[in-house]
Records
---
Amino acid sequence: MPTYSASETLDLPVASSERAGLSTFLRGLRGRVVGFAASAVWLVFGLSCWWREDLGDWSRTNEVAIGALLIAGVLLAASIAGFWSERVGEIVRNRAPWLVLLGALFSVWEVATAKLGWLPLPFFPPPQAIVEVFTDDLPKLLDSVISSIKLQLGGYAIGAGLGFITGVSIGWSRAVGYWVHPLLRFIGPLPATAWLPIAFFAFPSSWSASTFLIALATGFPVTVLTWSGVASVSNAYYDVARTLGAKPSFLVFKVAIPAALPHVFVGLFMGLGASFAVLVVAEMMGVKSGLGWYLQWAQGWASYSNMYAALLVMSLLCSGAITLLFKVRDRLLIWQKGVVKW
Amino acid sequence: MVSALALKQEAPLAGAALDVDDVSHHFDIDGKVLPVLDHVTLNAKPGAFVALLGPSGCGKSTLLRLVAGLEPPRSGRLLEDGRVITGPHPSRVVVFQDPTLFPWRTVWKNVALGLEAQGIIKSERHRVDAALELVGLSSFANAYPHQLSGGMAQRVSLARALVNDPQILILDEPLGKLDSLTRLSMQTEIVSLWQRNGFTTLLVTHDVEEALFLAQRVVVFSDRPARIKADIAVDRPYPRRRGDPRLAELRHDILGLLGLDATW
């Protein structure tokens, strides 16, 4: 005897689909409410800029207010559009909670600095002061960015290239390992910045000295991880390739290196982090350009808003560089399962 | 059938003769000498299918490594068609117990490995396609190894061996890690591949039934160091039937040689 009747089996889907419809509607409403809330919070931020006279002399208060109101307008439009376009609704739903938080933080920041002066000036400039840096000091900031990127790219490319070649050589050849390994153990763990005083008089220019230091900081982790990658390749792979007629060069380029690539990318990632630190220190100590130098210079003039602006740009650049590295890795290591998404 | 012909076109009609001539081998482990092969002499005619059977760890796989040329023997000689084997050569290809596919290469590129290593892939791409078709995996050409099942991976590793038109195919427990159903169907596949291509086949296994179902001769080894205990001709035509009473009889004899007939 069946334990359910025909009518039950017919009722059930109807009821559950009704419930599902209701919960979908509620969920949809909640997503949209957050979108409207974000718009409202940004409206508050914009209005807070006009609430009363600035305590200091900042020229971009109006622009910040208008910008905030524009964002509030766009959010409002997008939230309304979300009723018709599922795609827009999805975009708003995913970003709205963060936008609410950001708008609230900006409002508090604006009021606590420019309007009420709860936080001491000039150490805590208001948002309009930082926007002012981006609009009025843009050429110098851009110069610094380009200079930093050039220095970083050159040093990183040299360090990564040499580190990779050294790592493969140590991993592959016992003789190379014998000579290079002690050197690596002795010099590698030394922080690259410790070389700074020597590097700046040993090299013809502060630029070449900094390139050397960045390359050193990058090269060590890349070497060690490439080496460990090559050393950990299973002998079975070499056996297979050899029985199929592979020559030593094939074993290096088509077996050892591809098998070691996941390790190599860990090394490249660590090297990137280490090289950022060296870049900034080198720019602060010797090179007369770049974001590190800009930071130093801004501090000298006690222009804290310039420092915050430079920090923001620096963080975007570093994050961008890592994103780029991970994109390259995802392309090359497409055969791997379950890699971390950055 | 077309693909099989495509593979055979450039292949010699029969495989190579293999002579293992009084070969002994030992390993040095922590300064101690561990003998693994003790005066082994074995001859296989061109195109023969010989199974090497023995207890686990007796040195059968070591013998295969010597035939493949991955290691030189400590004493004695191994000859392929009368020429001394001095190193690996694509005319003698090994299929290992693990498929050992390169995880960073697609199925197609794994099969192409041998032709690429020999520098002839540009003109011989069709052989890769044919080998994949032969093992029934054409539609998986662009898959990566981690997307394959164990049986499929082992078939790819078979294709990777066959694409080189080997004269001696060396199978080192190739079905050892597969589930029993896949194993049975792949046994049949191996027999038909051998019959089509005519290569000399050397199969290491510790599965008595598998040896009897596949091989023309079963060579039984002793415990380490491996000595040849018996060389049994399996005088049954192909295709064989697993329930053949003659095979059951031989199985009993072989289990007796291995000291395992008490439970039969």
Note: Residues 180-197 of chain B form the longest helix (18 residues).
---
Amino acid sequence: MTILGIDILADWFRLSVVTVVLPKLIAAASVTIYVALLAFVGALVIAIPLLWAQRSHLPLIARPAVFLSDFIRSTPLLLQVYFYFFVLPQIGVMLPAIATGVLALSIHYGCYVSEAYRAGLEALPVGQRDAVIALGFSRFDAYRYIIVPQLIPFLIPALGNLLVSIFKETPLLASIAVTDIMFVAMQHGADHFQYIEPITLCGLIFLALSLATSFVIRVLENAASQTWLGRRNIRG
Amino acid sequence: MADQIASPIISFRAVTKKFGGTTVLANLDLDVVQNENLTLIGPSGSGKSTILRILMTLENVQAGGVTVDGEALWVDQGPDKLSQQAAAAQTRAIRRKVGMVFQSFNLFPHMSALRNIAEAPIRVLRLSKDEAYDRAIELLKLVGLADKQNNFPIQLSGGQQQRVAIARALAMRPKILLFDEVTSALDPETVGEVLSVIRQLAKKHQFTTLMVTHHMGLAREISDRVCFLEGGRIIEQGSPVQIFESPANNRTKAFLRAILEA
């Protein structure tokens, strides 16, 4: 097919290859989605004790936690992936590649999530703390019923962006043989010397994943910010 | 009167409070008897709000002792030693006897007016939801906002928010109510509705109230006693008539002249 004199479906982009590669990539996309979602949940969880430690009044707890977070955020994720992959077996922890990958992503992004949590807590008006103490809430109840519900609309956009980033970082795990779509694409390329079609399709699949994630985030954001933030439904 | 003085519901003994290098309360002694309406007046930075915040355990003290309803909240450890706060359980017990209304309302923005009032009775007093909501509706009626129960704070005016905040404090059935400049953040036209709620409460005389205000009309009307503070000390105290009509201290006179002319 020729458009504006350019043969856009020249023999370097062959439908015959697409029909073979696309099903393999779509199957592998489930690994990408699985890894990314698991790592995201892991990051949300890891960030809680991390933030608690960082905010501790005891320097013996706070200092190492702050250092760890700074260190992890300022070194490449690929390096961390290799580190866990090669070091954990040395200390007797044998994990499947996929678990190692999820662990690396969870810890790396947990450090960013804890920063998001911290920003949320700092944005909370100080008067809310006064009110919670004056009414006698226990610390746990205060977080559960008063603080966290107020943080959620604030956190959704920040956490959503991190989820999109996690999706985009999963191809790094191909380096430790996690069979995500990038791994499958490169394997097909190596086997048949057909790289352009699988890599292009990979890009399109990532684009679709990112757009879908952004859409879900926007829906959640709207749902969470109704009524009480005053963006909608004000009856006056 | 003598037996009341013997057992004040609130007593501050030689309390010193510093923020960094600034002394906010200097060796303060203050007794409040049951059901007394006490008003604290004075220039900003004189330590009046700090007295309320110490009672609500929002601030600590460096020296001296504080007792609430016969239980120690802060215990004097003698000279050159920091005062010790009561154990956690006792602190919680004392908090339940004290309610506070803030200058900036501090309502929970994600909850309706009704839930703002009912939440602490449900979570802290462990009332059933039905009972807590019934009580919350009664309290909304008391403050004249029965028709606003489903409104979120953002949908209420400042005066309405402050009335919800008063109802929220009352829902915990405190013995002592603290009002910290509750009309200072309000538009002038909504001050009246909040004042009338406070007047109504003070007349019933079922609470001990400590109020910090710049609203001298209210202080004069509902107080049993007025304290003028400056630099963390009580400079002068007496009945409202005494303080407002014939203040003895020159600084009291100057303060009142400045504030009444403003």
Note: Chain B is about 40% helix and 25% strand.
